[in-house]
Structure formats: C-alpha cells, structure tokens
Model the fold of this input.
Amino acid sequence: MTNDAVGRGHDTTTDVLVIGAGLSGVAAVIALRRAGIDDVVVLEKSADTGGTWRDNTYPGCGCDVPAMLYEYSFAPHTWGRCFASGAEILDYLRTTASAHGVDKLVDHGVEVLGARWDPDAHRWTLRTSSGIRTARVVVMATGAWHRPRYPDLPGLDAFPGPVFHSARWDHDAELTGRRVAVVGAGASTVQFLPEIQRRAARIDVFQGTAQWVMPKPDYALPPALHRFLGRHPAARRALRGQHHWTQEAIGLVLRHPRLLPALEAVARLHLRTSVPDPELRRALTPRYRFGGRRIITSSTYYPALTRPNVQLHPTRAAAVEGRHIVGADGTRVQADVVVLATGFHVGDPPFAHHLHGVDGTALARTWAHDRPAYLGTSVSGYPNLFLLTGPNLFSGTTAVPTVVEAQLQYITSALTHLRASGHTAFDVRPEAQEAHHTAVQAALRDTAYNAAGPSGYYFGLPGVNTFCWPWSTDRLVKRLHAFTPESYTWSTVPRVPGQRSVDARPSSLPN
Done:
C-alpha cells in the first residue's frame, strides 16, 4: 500500500479492519467485498502475504490434508500433488490475493500493538507501529499456528552453533556433513527429517511423546488428469467429495472412540512394516489413544528413522551443556546444529493479551480459565469483533479453508444485519455463549480428542480442550450459515443533538 494510504488510516475510521494477511485474512477481504463492504483495510506486520505458509519454510513443509480440500471454494487450483507442498500453497495464496485485488488493501510492515473498544464512539481504537487506527469492526485473522513455542532448556543460549525453530528455519545454516540435534518429534519433524537425513552426518532426535503416524497416500497429479478434470467439472467435484468424505469418516471414528481400534490397527501395521527393529518400534509406539493428539501422516518418516545416521532418543531434552544436548534420562549427544521442533502456542494467542473489551478487560483475562467463544467467532464483552480460526472450530481432519469460509458466511451475515438494522454495535449475549461453550465441552468428553488428557495437543488450558469441534464438519458449516440475531444485543451510539457524525465519509456500515 502507498504511504498516502497508510497515512489515511491515521485520521479516518475504517469500516472493517482485518488483522493478518494469511489464508484467513485473504479470504476475509474477498468475502467482505462480495458482501458489499468495500471500506476494508488489512494490517500485516510482515513484509509479505502468506501467514503460516510464509513463515514455515523448512525442508519438506507441506499440508496434511488433501490439496483439493485446502483451497478456497471460489478459486480451484491445479495442484501438483495430492498433498500440496508449503511453497505451492504460498504461491496459491499470493496468486489468489493478487487476482482479487487483496494485495492493494494490505498495509505491510504494520504491527498491531493493542486494541481497545470505545463504548462512547462504538468503535475500536488500535495502537499500531505506524500510529493510531480506528475501525467500526475488527476481524482477527492472526491464525492458530503463528507464534513458535520455544523450550526452556538451560544452557541453550550458550550453545556455540546455530540454533533455530523449525518455523523460523535458518537456510544459511549448513547441515551437510554436520551433527544435528532435533528437539521434538511432532508434525514438523515428521516432514523435515527425511529431507535433512540425506545431508547430515548424524541426526539425534529427542522424542518426548511418541506420535500416531498414518501412511500418507501422496502422489503426483499429472497434467492429463487435470485436463480431464477441467473438461469434466463433475469429475473434479466427485474427487474432491471423495477426499472430503474420507476425512469425515476418520472424524466419525474420532468422535466415537469405540471405533478407534480399526485406525489404530492401520497405524500399527504401518509402524511394523516400516521399522524392522523391535526396540525402535517400542520407542515409537504411542501410549495414548489414537486422536488424542494431532494426527500425523507420512510414508517417509519411519524409514528415515531407520537410517544408520539417525538415532531416536525416547526422552525429552532437558539441558544443553556446551555442544552436548542432555536428555531427561541422562542421554548425552554432541551436536553442531540444534533444531527446535517444539510447535506453537496454539492455545495461547498473543493478541488476547492486548485486546481490551467493554470494561477495559484484556481478552487474556476473560480467557484465564477457559476460552469461551460463541461458535468460535464472537466473544461476549468484545463488540464488533470477530475471530477467524477461533476456539473449538477444528477437528483432526477438517481443512482450514472450509472452516474459514463458513465463518465468513456468518460474519458477512452479521454485518449485513448490522447495516440493515441501523445499529452501530452488537455483542453476543453471555448466556448464548455459555450455552454453546457448555454444549461443546460436554460433547468433547467422550471423544478421542480428549483421550490424551490435559497435556494433549488440543488443550490450551489445564483441563479444557480449546481447539476441537466435537461434531461433523457439515454440522459446523450449517451452524455457521445460520446467523441468529437474537443471540446478540444490538445498540446504537448515542448522539448529542446537533452533533455531526464522527466520520463524515460514506460508509457501508452505520455511523
């Protein structure tokens, strides 16, 4: 965006301000403009569009759901493989953003430092790295896989070689012929280990928890197939539908744990046929039920662990002493490079500490004991605010674009109602939010998602699953497509007789 456009944000109020220009932020702009809301500005702290796919550039980075499900419904793509690489997804997002003019609305290099609801003016005041912005409505599109989690390893700061998180991969660090210590054995390690194993002299993997790993049916999608699908749209829809229902079938099993033995048998067979060494198999066998943590798919991870230059240590890393990584069981290995594959703060979004609602309370305090949100989208006490990819919207099988598009259908319906009603603010009723949150948590109790207990991947707070939707994806989409105005309170900013509007510009939302 031009400097003039950036300056414009300092002295006028934007109808809708979107924070973040990743997958959900790009979709938000397109949906809002299609709904007739043209006064939209996006603030993105980074220099480029792309979100998590911009940040995660580690070798082998890719999507763990079929590519045909990881696309916007309005922008089908000719994918190179059944499961797309991170680079191809990033290119798709940027191409789609450019085609729909989204990039012209993004203020890059602008970080939001804090936001506060103004109850008198019925708008949000945002403190940013480029000055003060105001907006009638704020859409948080900051993503769940945004802030890397760094382990507390005594002595790590003094390690004499390169140290980096997998989500901030240091491509200048030389791995060829080096000894690499990998801390963590989750989804990112599963993807990058087979890639770096070919170059490194030795790799030591510290595994705190063994993961369930399913085989990944990945394959190239040849040009002839795409030509056929292009000539026969119904065939493409059928193939996409097949992927969808396969994912839903797995989700059905996760919601009904009595069906889990079938999936666990597939995962155990995959482990047994991939890893001949019984001792290594024992170390790789999970001690929790399938689905209690993020489901991982790979047909290359297990074979990589059997290579002579790779050693799995079934213990968490506990400390660093000089060039040695020390495991909790006393294991000591020497390394030249340390890769931290320790995931993200999925249940602790950083924006919650800087977002203040009707009574000045930070969202982090409101969420101190759990993370209630109505349909994962609205939070009581925070009017005119929407969360994309908010709490309890995902399962182990749902594709992010499906959830985001369903949320945006809900959001645009809400803003259309706001425009038609003439009100200036709406806030979800606490009783509606509580009823929804209670129902979600009750439904989760008997699912596989809660099987790993409070230490599981999906538990952002002790004892509370803040990530999962306990029903089918179709139910989620239908529920978000049915906006219910009665679940909200609606109000209008009080006007002093003879007072002019705070902002005299034409607006697609009420002043």
Summary: Confidence is low (pLDDT under 50) at residues 1-11, 496-505.
